[in-house]
Design brief:
The chain has 329 residues and is of the alpha+beta class. It has 8 helices and 17 strands. It has helices spanning 31-35, 59-70, 81-94, 166-178, 222-234, 248-251, 282-295, 316-320; strands spanning 11-14, 17-20, 38-40, 43-48, 53-57, 101-109, 122-130, 141-149, 183-187, 193-196, 200-205, 208-211, 238-241, 254-259, 263-270, 273-274, 306-308. Strands 8, 9, 10, 11, 12, 13, 14, 15 and 16 form a 9-stranded mixed sheet that branches. Strands 1, 2, 3, 4, 5, 6, 7 and 17 form an 8-stranded antiparallel sheet that branches. The structure holds pyridoxal-5'-phosphate. Pyridoxal-5'-phosphate binds at residues 42, 169, 195, 198-200, 219, 221-224, 258-260.
Length: 329
């Protein structure tokens, strides 16, 4: 799916300043553009009409993951996760967003020169755009196992959202859609189920909720961990992390994807075969509702996941003074 281009007047955080998107540009020789040497994140915010507030979902966890994983590319992201959350909330306020949003933090190697060697020139940006459904999954998705294999940790670690690694996801998604599916499922080189092109995968089989472990070359998804918490705390179902064989996908009761963009998306068809009864399963449906309520601030026990943008936050003046200690921006 494609999203609309944001307005050039919208405000973004770029090189330690709030600037219009039209001014946030890079040189054609930028290292990350040529070699894929960036690390990005994806965070959602949900606007709730009843509470008149926009809730960023687990932004501190996303920023901690961004900071940690960027070190794989020897990029030191300036500022604490908390300060990055404050900048993000401020971006939403400056853009007067009163809709669901998607936040795209990006850290990248910014030298404008030819040559693969890494250097110390890093740059950082945070962009926020209005955002709706990523995949229309109300009636369930069709998924297909693709011929592309998930990149191995020994090639490009998939636990980090490394820009260049997403060629793997783009190829998989393209193959899946051309074959009539909505989303791809990757196998690892050893033949185990890894994840979707842009999301993690869960299966319900023999009364257990099962998902592949981090060692099967998945991104350690934050929605995955939210769904595990919800299943453990709110549902009477045993949870198991273990490798999954491809043929189990054909004989299981339920399958669903999780991810910041896809949210909780039930799968009703796998490789042109019905999943279970061929309609949305009860576990996926319950988790989808729980996740929706939790991320809109309607489940009291999960309010700590949310960062409210408009209520009880810092004023513009305070954030104006917020300068991240950056040595290489
Ligand atoms: C390859 C891949 N797997 C899984 C996920 C889900 O991760 P999260 O729930 O942290 O968004 C994403 C989305 O970012 C992804 O790109």
């Amino acid at each position: 799916m494609r999203t609309e281009a944001p307005s050039p007047d919208s405000i973004v955080w770029f090189q330690n300043k709030f600037v219009p998107l039209a001014e946030a540009n890079v040189n054609i020789l930028t290292h990350a553009l040529n070699y894929g040497t960036g690390v990005f994140e994806g965070i959602r915010g949900y606007y709730d009409d009843h509470q008149n507030d926009l809730f960023l979902v687990r932004p501190q966890d996303h920023y901690q993951r961004w900071k940690r994983n960027a070190t794989i590319l020897r990029i030191e992201i300036p500022g604490t996760a908390r300060e990055l959350c404050e900048i993000t909330a401020e971006l939403c306020r400056r853009n007067r967003f009163r809709s669901h949003v998607y936040v795209r933090p990006l850290a990248y190697k910014s030298s404008a020169r030819i040559g693969v060697a890494m250097d110390q020139n890093d740059a950082f940006a945070v962009t926020v755009v209005p955002f709706g459904d990523y995949l229309e999954s109300t009636h369930g998705l069709k998924a297909g196992v693709v011929s592309w294999r998930r990149i191995e940790d020994t090639a490009i670690p998939s636990r980090a959202k490394i820009c260049g690694a997403y060629v793997n996801s783009v190829l998989a998604g393209d193959e899946a859609r051309r074959a009539g599916h909505d989303e791809a499922i990757f196998l690892t080189e050893s033949g185990h189920v890894a994840e979707g092109a842009t999301c993690n995968l869960f299966m319900v089989r023999n009364g257990q909720l099962v998902t592949p472990p981090a060692t099967d070359n998945i991104l350690e998804g934050i929605t995955r961990s939210s769904v595990i918490d919800l299943a453990r705390n709110e549902m009477n179902i045993e949870f198991v992390e273990r490798s999954i064989n491809r043929s189990e996908l054909y004989v299981c009761d339920e399958l669903f994807f999780t991810g910041t963009a896809v949210e909780v998306a039930p799968i009703v068809q796998i490789d042109h075969r019905p999943v279970g009864t061929g309609s949305i399963g009860q576990v996926a449906d319950t988790l989808r509702t729980l996740y929706k309520d939790a991320t809109r601030g309607r489940l009291f026990g999960y309010r700590h996941w949310l960062w409210p943008v408009y209520v009880g936050n810092r004023s513009e003046a305070v954030v104006d003074e917020l300068e991240l200690a950056t040595s290489h921006a």
